Amino acid sequence: xxxxxxxxxxxxxxxxxxxxxxxxxxxxxxxxxxxxxxxxxxxxxxxxxxxxxxxxxxxxxxxxxxxxxxxxxxxxxxxxxxxxxxxxxxxxxxxxxxxxxxxxxxxxxxxxxxxxxxxxxxxxxxxxxxxxxxxxxxxxxxxxxxxxxxxxxxxxxxxxxxxxxxxxxxxxxxxxxxxxxxxxxxxxxxxxxxxxxxxxxxxxxxxxxxxxxxxxxxxxxxxxxxxxxxxxxxxxxxxxxxxxxxxxxxxxxxxxxxxxxxxxxxxxxxxxxxxxxxxxxxxxxxxxxxxxxxxxxxxxxxxxxxxxxxxxxxxxxxxxxxxxxxxxxxxxxxxxxxxxxxxxxxxxxxxxxxxxxxxxxxxxxxxxxxxxxxxxxxxxxxxxxxxxxxxxxxxxxxx
Length: 399
What we know:
Elements: E1 17-18, H1 28-34, H2 44-61, E2 67-72, H3 75-86, E3 92-97, H4 100-111, E4 115-120, H5 129-139, E5 143-147, E6 149-150, E7 155-156, H6 162-168, E8 172-176, E9 195-197, E10 210-215, H7 217-224, H8 237-244, H9 256-272, H10 274-294, E11 310-314, H11 321-332, E12 334-335, E13 337-338, E14 347-351, H12 359-375, H13 384-396
Parallel strand pairs: 1-12, 3-4, 3-5, 5-8, 8-9
Antiparallel strand pairs: 2-10, 6-7, 9-10, 11-14, 13-14
Helix pairs in contact: 1-9, 2-9, 5-6, 10-12, 10-13, 11-12, 12-13
């Protein structure tokens, strides 16, 4: 028996078009950057990479916050880092829950020992400033947490004017930007957000593994005024920030090559230009919507708060959710997501994030979905979706 028989086959994943809720497609230059030689986590070269990462993340977050960095871990680690550093046992936290990830934030807060007060909305709905103002005025929490782009529902939450009512109640504003960062404006300073977290695998088109976070001076002051140690050693910003700046004190061995990948991914974002990137995501969302509507498929959330990068649509009556998703994957190599929570089995989540947000992907997906639906006996005019999307592109894109 040769030695090869003792091991599994080499890693040879199929080539997919990632049009689900994340991860998104990755540029070849990002994958190449991750294959570069590994250096030590305190090597002068890597420290320079860290400095440049912080500078680019500040641009992406539209902030001057000094404490802006990439947490070693996926987007959920960013969520946990923000909550555990701002909350001590017994602190009150109001969490706005209108989807899976608002619920997850509330769960994390309760595990830290917070007194959690949840404001709830049906999946797909959003919150008004007035209802949040009423709750924070009554509850006087230390922190209010809310999701900017709810990945589970495809709903976009407006954040303008929210900080005023939160700050008037003496609270800090914490925002989940996992799906929004890099695909729509996230204006930390202009909107007076105190803390925010994101992930690399959505609109930044980098493999999952790091979580960009940013903290305002108000948030840092709250952390510095803690009476107890942060419950997580690994995510304790009082130590992590010493590694990312100042003394460069060793805390943990950072994922070196993952940071290379994020560095290159951010370079691509900034080379494209923030406004250009936001416009691209919105245009492809509109083209996809035109095509789906021509096929008789409607969005699951109201027009005025649909996400441009995560399109949640209603599954047509009589159509098998899993069967269509399986056909898209097996016949065409296209991944889309199913619904979560109360939307499970009722919606598809179609991602157009970062590298995936391309006109060619919109047209390919609509053609593939057309064939799958026709195969399932759904009544539609063949090619109507592609034609409608092409009409949108032809009449709105001039260059």
